[in-house]
Automatic annotation (TrEMBL):
Coiled coil: none annotated. Its EC number is 3.6.1.55. One of its GO terms (biological process) is DNA replication. Residues 3-130 form the Nudix hydrolase domain. Its cofactor is Mg(2+). This is 8-oxo-dGTP diphosphatase. Belongs to the Nudix hydrolase family. It comes from the Bacteria. It holds the Pfam family NUDIX. SUPFAM superfamilies: Nudix. One of its GO terms (molecular function) is metal ion binding. Keywords: DNA damage, DNA repair, DNA replication, Hydrolase, Magnesium, Metal-binding, Mutator protein.
Length: 130
């Protein structure tokens, strides 16, 4: 069986109802694809704490997380990821691109125009229907 990796991703919505999307760099795995910012949960770490830590590292800003929006298990070639999308709001700072090529705010109805990492596609579809 492939290794299972637990990943948290933030669905950060601003006051205009737009959602924060981040572009992976050419050097990362799944290069030049869009994702929701976040990362791997460390052993023993709570999912909300993990997401707050990842957002602080990646975007130099603070968030307040709320409910889990959805979970998706996706099999990549080398491992399987359990992707947990969690709703959040920015509480401090503006997102910076410490690790990504770009971050943008996007209206829900336009999310499908971006080229997403495969595990995120069902999440973008769910966001469109809510
Ligand atoms: N942050 C984030 N990662 C995602 C999403 N969808 C998805 O498949 N992933 C994958 C990419 C990575 O392999 C892994 C997250 O790991 P990470 O962001 O901590 O990155 P990493 O450098 O440790 O891992 P890697 O890119 O070398 O595989 O989950 C998503 O929406 N957000």
């Amino acid at each position: 069986m492939k290794k299972m990796v637990k990943v948290v991703a933030a669905i950060i919505e601003n006051e205009n109802g737009e959602i924060l999307c981040a572009l992976r760099t050419p050097e990362m795995s799944s290069p030049n694809r869009w994702e929701f910012p976040g990362g791997k949960v460390e052993p023993g770490e709570d999912i909300h704490t993990a997401l707050e830590r990842e957002i602080n590292e990646e975007l130099s800003c603070k968030i307040a997380t709320s409910e889990v929006f959805c979970e998706n298990v996706h099999e990549y070639e080398k491992y399987t990821i359990q992707l947990i999308a969690i709703k959040a709001k920015l509480t401090e700072g503006n997102p910076k691109t410490n690790e990504h090529s770009k971050v943008i705010w996007m209206a829900r109805e336009n999310l499908e125009s971006l080229k997403w990492v495969p595990a995120d596609v069902p999440i973008t579809e769910m966001l469109l229907n809510k």
